[in-house]
Records
---
Amino acid sequence: MTRHLRHTSTVTLPVAALIVALTACTSGPDRDDARPAPSASESASTDAANVDEAEATAQAHLGECADDFVQLEATGEPITFGDCAAISILGSATEVTVGDAETISVEGDGNHVTAGDVDSVLFAGTGNTVAHEGEVPEVTDLTDDPGSNSTRPR
């Protein structure tokens, strides 16, 4: 029996020393790099700030090509816009004429877009058409009815 206890203490002491050593390596509340988890109200404040920032960024890009991106609000009235690397059209049932773009995204239903050269088109709505110049663009359709959207040469 004494032999068994000695073997147990021989194993227990190195394991205990390892645990103490590992615990000393982790950050604790008195360490400079330790940060408490944010409270629910802090997380909500951060989320609200992120939403506000995203809305401000979108508003800054509404109708103006800034940082190679423009957001056009499709309200049913015809829209004409020039060239921009990324053109996002939000809304429905609008005739939109744009220039050259690397990417055009159409989020809404029943929009008819006439464009210059376009590299890619993203659809997130149904019944949309993009008429383009140049090569056939790459198409990504996020809808349940991809056959309702189309691209065609102009």
---
Amino acid sequence: MIKRILLAGLAAAALPALAVAAAAASYTAPRTAFGDPDLQGIWTNASITTLERAQGATSLVISPEEAARLEVKIPDRTTVVALAREGVGWSSRELARQLEGWLLQGRPLAFLIGGSSGLNSSVIARASARWSLGPLTFPHELARVILCEQLYRAFTILRGEPYHKGV
């Protein structure tokens, strides 16, 4: 009889410990888009802002009014990188070095991609850096994909991961 009570008591004491262990085993820490532990909050694409042009806009470059609407959406103290034809072409490793420097500043970072009409000169002048994806012309939707892939590649270079196989 004493053995049964002792076993029942041990089982009752062990169940809460097992429940806590099971809960801890099922918890997964938040991760970044790169699979690393998220130390700075959850990353989202909520900050992606598309500037819609007015119907019938025919200018090759966005107007000063459109540029002002775009600039209002850029938070203060943001490091702005304009993707522009007249920008500097960086290798993936050079981009990784640039990105590391920007991140060490501890400021928000915004990449501006012009549509088929390009960016206004006032927007380009505000940029801290101008980056060219090369002499080819890309639709801005494809430029977004290239930008995302190159940023991913730059982060893997900074972390020393084997994704980047270039020199």
---
Amino acid sequence: MKTIYLWVSGEGWKTFDFENCKEELELREISIGNGAKIGNGAVIGYGAVIGYGAVIGDGAEIDYGAVIGHEAKIGNGAVIGYGAVIGYGANIGNEAKISDGAVIGNKAKIGNGAKIVKTIFITGSKHTVNWYDTGIIHIGCYKKEIEWWLKNYKLIGEKENYSSDEIEEYHKYILICQQLKQSCQPPA
């Protein structure tokens, strides 16, 4: 028998037989797509959406309002935070921790034990900007260290036919990421 844990108001987390808990899932507005596989001891929060063919590992925790894309794989013991979005076909490793509100793109791979604590996703006027608390910024198809971006943003902007206003727009995004990185570092 496969079991999952669901929150019961006034009682806390309770175990349910996965095969016979459709009504309990509906009460919590949890949606699990056809062909999805949920591992033993998985915890699924209120309003979570798990896509078709997704695989949720044993002991994984999917928090309130999280969305797991079609055919995504969530490793054993992984934790997906409140409102996080895991894209189509993404692969989240065993024991990985994805924080509240994080957005992990389609086909992304997050390794075993990885911790994605702070993230930012910006839709700019030309390309998206992604920063994952690693010191790396993705802008369009470029993936570089913050320091590199600070030295080269004008050159890349010109190469990619950005206007001078767009170059300054993206410079501000880079500075935001730099400030976030600094605020996330523990005090010396």
